[in-house]
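Dear support,

I submitted the protein below through the web form. The confirmation email said the job was done, but the results page showed an empty box. After a refresh the structure appeared. I'm attaching both so you can tell me whether what I see now is the final result or a partial one.
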Amino acid sequence: LEIQTELLAELLDHWKLDAPSVIAHDFGGAISLRAHLLEGKQYRHLTLINVVAMAPWGSPFFAHVRQHEQAFAGVPDYIHQAIVEAYIKGACHRPLEPETLANLVAPWLGDAGRAAFYRQIAQADQKYTDQVQPLYGKIRCPVCVVWGEEDKWIPIETGRRLHAAIPQSEFYPIAAAGHLAAIEQPDALIDILKKCMPG
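What the results page shows now:
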């Protein structure tokens, strides 16, 4: 997450974006918050959707992979695919369409995808949000915190705590959505974005 923060900051400089509106989901929240608070990147507006931003975070599965990353990297393809499918299904409140599930699983298959899947979990560390969580009161732009009410990965109570930690934020729950609100309730999410984003 530290490297991804630096990459985002460099990308904004490369594109000459002085104050973009940013929409972030999951780890994208940690990265966009770190770029703003630690790298000095300005945003016109920040929307945080079911983001990793508040301690504690990390599931028992994350902890197990961190301890045994190499063992997971060597599992047969069919077992790995079953693990990834079960992992992604756990993010949703309702079953995904088979094609949608297949599209979400596909990047994590094959030798490179399998290694990347376990590597990104093993490298996830709460220290990266612990560094910025005390600074949320210093965020310099309007913020919308959006959360699927049925998120089993990061419960909505965490979203409410994040909202409370950012004085200039608004909070929008999405009914009948888990962690993947953009897939599960796209129309509701679009309506919220129209309300909370400038312009």
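Response: this is the final, complete result; the empty box was a page-load delay. Residues 2-14 form the longest helix (13 residues).
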